[in-house]
Amino acid sequence: MKPHDAPPPLYIDTIEALEDLAADLVGQPRVAVDLESDSFYVYHDKICLIQLTAGTEDYVVDPLPIKDLSPLGAMFRDPAVEKVFHAGEYDIACLKRDYGFEVRHLFDTMAAARVLGSQKLGLAPLVEHHFGVTLSKKLQRANWGLRPLSDEHVEYARNDTHFLFGLRDKLEAELTERGLLRHARDEFRRLEDTPAVEKRFDPDAYWHLAGSRELDGRQRAVLKRLWVFREKQAAALDKAPFRVMPEDLLVRIAAARPAELDDLRRVRGMSPYLFRRFGREIVAENLAADEDPPADTAPERPRTDRWDADTMRRYEALRVWRKDKALAQAVEPVVILPTEDLRRLSLAPRDSEEPQRWLSVLSEFKREQYGAELLELLSRPGPEPKKRRRRRGGRRRSGGGGVAAQHPEQPA
User: Fold this and answer.
1) Which of 39, 209, 238, 251 ranks highest by number of CB atoms within 10 Å?
2) CA-CA distance, 235 to 43, in Å (whole number)?
3) 263 and 256 Cβ atoms separated by less than 8 Å
4) Rounded mean pLDDT of the chain?
5) Whole-angstrom distance, CA of residue 253 vs CA of residue 275
């Protein structure tokens, strides 16, 4: 049923209505789920809406006035109820973080489309392809933490689950026809174990900002201070860091190294608001950076695993094996084995001399499918790892080049 033919979604914003909904969900064979958060706007992001579809009814749950979402916990962890998500990894991580919910019996339509090798992975293109319905993207960047929500916002939110049952059934039929259903289910189980999302700040990530490598060491010392300063302000103001100060402005300030307020005022992009709000503190950070050592070289990424020649040979052999398997089954290589599994398998013989323990990193399905081949491959010497060919007449790129950049722990 297209949304304009369906009754309006039920808007749930009281604990009593939520408890009634939770009771109605008991015995449902499947529930479609989606979330909206305010991560694009705030530093301490949170779930702002939970959209559900059960049977022929769409629901929009507003957790902000309810606070206690525990009545829904039983449904999420009930293995008898299939939860249908689209791109549910982050949603599951947020449900664990905000409410402590475990999600069991999952079907993820984006993961299913990826196993099928679909070029269309977004919900809107998949819905248009399978149902001929064009979903609006107008509110994709909406601030879902604002209240009250308009009817347009509620209608937009309900569309994220309204089509999931039909899409799920079409994708499952294709997976079954191509013999890929167990591959998809294996990926669904992996998604169920997604850990709770954690906010982490890397004080050295300023090295990745556009233009940072064109600065000298003293200017980068200023940039590091500005990078940390912005993060602290974002946390205190509960704003997304880029809304406190844009990254390109941080780089231009560091390049200018303003020692006086007038110097800072002349930096391109320094708006009157930012100048009034942070001007004195920015100048102070610049002056304080004179006491810091120059940031001449990027910090080395710590390596917790050992990558000797034998481990590298095993990794290369596994990559070749995975590529051949994928070609034979006409799927993407990650459908055969995720890259993280390749890394862990490469290290397994170093960590244990017992072959039966090497495959413990894999799911039961992957062990059934490929266990014998993988044990045989891991037990014999693999090909020499490929060496990176250096360009003639040029210089090796700084920061990201060289042999270290090819290490499996450091994806490009």
Assistant:
1) 251
2) 6
3) yes
4) 90
5) 12
In terms of residue numbers, what domain contains 339?
302-412
Domain for residue 297, yes or no? no
Q: How many CB atoms lie within 10 A of CB 30?
A: 18
Cα distance between residue 358 and residue 300, in whole Å: 29
3-state SS of 59-116 is EEECHHHHCCCHHHHHHHHCCCCEEEECCCHHHHHHHHHHHCCCCCCEEEHHHHHHHC
Q: What is the DSSP letter of 49?
A: E
- The confidence score (pLDDT) of residue 380 equals 76
384 pLDDT band, cuts 50/70/90, is: low
Interatomic CA distance for residues 329 and 178, integer angstroms: 9
Q: Same domain for 327 and 386?
A: yes
pTM of the predicted model as reported, rounded to 2 decimal places: 0.85
Residues making up the chain, counted from first to last: 412
> How far apart are the C-alpha atoms of 75 and 160, rounded to whole Å?
19
How far from 286 is each of 218, 229, 263, 267, 277, CA to CA, in Å? 10, 11, 11, 14, 16
